[in-house]
Design brief:
It comes from Riccia fluitans. With 487 residues, the protein is of the alpha+beta class. The chain is built from 15 helices and 14 strands. It binds S-adenosylmethionine.
Length: 487
């Protein structure tokens, strides 16, 4: 039965799925159509768009904040909106810097910022000891006390004007785990219903083996956090299949009809959103790095397969369901991650700290001096990465259909009002109804050779009109040159 999940969907099935999305009001103004050949399907304008206009705003189907970004940004696990208070966000970032557990940032990064007054009447610790930097030179590191950071975390210390930068209060996970927090009951309930009830490590978790689930998560954090997103696909499909089965059982009993639909058909229906992104398995989809000898390609790919197998073994122990056993097939798991490899969007949500410190910097002089007495030391202690963005990866139903062009007509871009992880596409020029919407996956201001090299990492050779034109011009000019050189 795994073969059914691995099969590419028919054009009819795709048409039905994307029509369903359109009917549900997802992506108004755009539609998915088959192009064929190397392009497969693409996203098309269903109305005229003006330059700068919003073409698409779409929440992710599955996604996760990167593990190495979690200390930098406390965000809603479902929509990636910053939560808590500005004080909490700053305090959380300072703890690892102060207790030396910061694995991901330069410990000697003291930064230097304008707008502050020297000195402060707060209880700051000026640590002026000489420290040895990795360049061998002594560095002067200015820091603040843990006591002060704790008062930020406890909400006892309010930063000036922070009430102008209110974030959504934290909603805890309904399952009681401490790993995930939300910006509202709506997000908490939606995540719970969509996949988290099976992936929660809290007391109300519905997984079958919590020890195995913890092991699965630890393995993912230590190796590749994409496994956490793949688990959302498996858990989500399982939950949808079970819900469909119980709905069908109810209706067939009520109507006195015979057997309910087979588990096979139910699973296929539940799998639908991910069947559409059908691609290669992970170990075939990954690009071979330059430093790997092509003769070692098979061994390199085998390592990915082995890693996926380790991960799946733990996940299977944690949430296995015999009825839908094919969901736990290694090739299916590999295909989900391969689909992410080729389709996922790197999600970025700007930090409210950036706006906050800019705000302080732009206060009228008299107020700025007072405010900076408090904020300056925090800013210095945070260092130059004071406003590191929230970053993660997500899979989107419509955005994942957008093809690349080296002469694109849209771009992924967050506007000031976009405070969550939704995919945003803006028109970079006027787009007529019926035109394909394209973005550039790379820096398109490069030469043909450089662009093709960069796109090789995405696993394809670009056939966009610009590449076709430039390639044919290159062939033409090399032929002319060859003609001129003929005796
Ligand atoms: C994010 S998906 C876009 C949707 C895809 N066309 C589909 O049918 O699912 C990216 C894939 O589309 C194809 N593709 C996108 N842009 C292309 C281009 N300019 N030239 C050739 N293939 C392209 C490649 O197969 C690539 O891996």
């Amino acid at each position: 039965m795994a073969e059914l999940l691995l099969a590419a969907p028919s054009e009819a099935a795709m048409g039905k799925y994307y029509d369903k999305l359109a009917t549900a009001g997802k992506g108004p103004g755009v539609k998915v159509e088959q192009i064929g050949g190397v392009f497969g399907k693409g996203l098309f304008a269903d109305k005229n768009f003006s330059e700068g206009e919003l073409v698409l705003r779409e929440p992710m189907l599955v996604g996760a904040q990167h593990e190495n970004n979690k200390a930098d940004a406390l965000v809603c696990s479902l929509c990636f909106r910053y939560v808590g208070t500005l004080e909490l966000q700053i305090g959380r970032r300072l703890i690892p810097k102060l207790d030396g557990t910061d694995k991901y940032h330069d410990q000697d990064d003291t930064g230097s910022h304008s707008g502050g007054e020297e000195g402060s009447d707060m209880d700051f610790t000026e640590d002026d000891e000489d420290r040895c930097g990795c360049d061998g030179k002594p560095k002067k590191n200015k820091t603040i006390s843990m006591e002060l950071v704790n008062s930020l975390l406890k909400g006892e210390l309010h930063l000036p004007d922070s009430e102008r930068f209110l974030l959504s209060p934290i909603t805890n996970c309904p399952g009681g785990c401490s790993e995930d927090v939300y910006c509202s009951d709506v997000c908490a309930d939606e995540a719970w219903r969509a996949y988290h009830s099976l992936l929660c490590t809290g007391p109300n978790s519905l997984c079958v083996n919590k020890t195995a689930l913890v092991k699965f998560k630890d393995h993912a954090r230590d190796t590749n956090d994409i496994f956490l997103v793949a688990a959302q696909v498996i858990a989500g499909t399982l939950i949808r299949a079970r819900n469909l089965a119980s709905e069908l059982a109810k209706t067939s009993t009520a109507k006195g009809k015979g057997e309910a639909r087979e588990a096979r058909d139910i699973l296929l229906e539940a799998w639908e959103p991910f069947a559409m992104g059908h691609k290669k398995v992970w170990w075939e989809a990954v690009a071979l790095p330059d430093d790997v000898d092509p003769s070692q390609g098979d061994a390199f790919r085998e390592q990915f397969k082995e890693l996926a197998n380790e991960s799946l073994t733990n996940l299977k122990e944690a949430i296995y369901d015999e009825e839908y056993s094919s969901l736990f097939d290694l090739e299916v798991y590999g295909q989900i991650i391969g689909m992410f490899e080729l389709n996922n969007l790197e999600i970025v949500v700007p930090s409210p700290m950036e706006d906050y410190f800019i705000h302080i910097d732009e206060l009228p002089l008299d107020r700025r001096a007072d405010a900076a007495k408090i904020t300056r030391s925090f800013l210095d202690a945070l260092g130059s990465e004071y406003a590191t963005y929230c970053s993660g990866t997500g899979f989107f139903a419509l955005q994942s259909c957008v093809n690349h062009s080296c002469r694109p007509n849209a771009k992924a871009f967050k506007r000031d009002e976009d405070k969550d992880g939704a995919a945003i596409l803006l028109a970079t020029r006027n787009i007529r109804k019926g035109e394909e919407i394209t973005i550039s996956y790379i820096d398109e201001n490069r030469s043909l050779e450089e662009r093709q090299g960069m796109l090789a990492d995405y696993g394809f050779t670009c056939s966009c009109p610009r590449c076709v034109e430039e390639s044919s011009m290159k062939i033409f000019s090399s032929r002319s040159l060859a003609g001129m050189l003929q005796p």
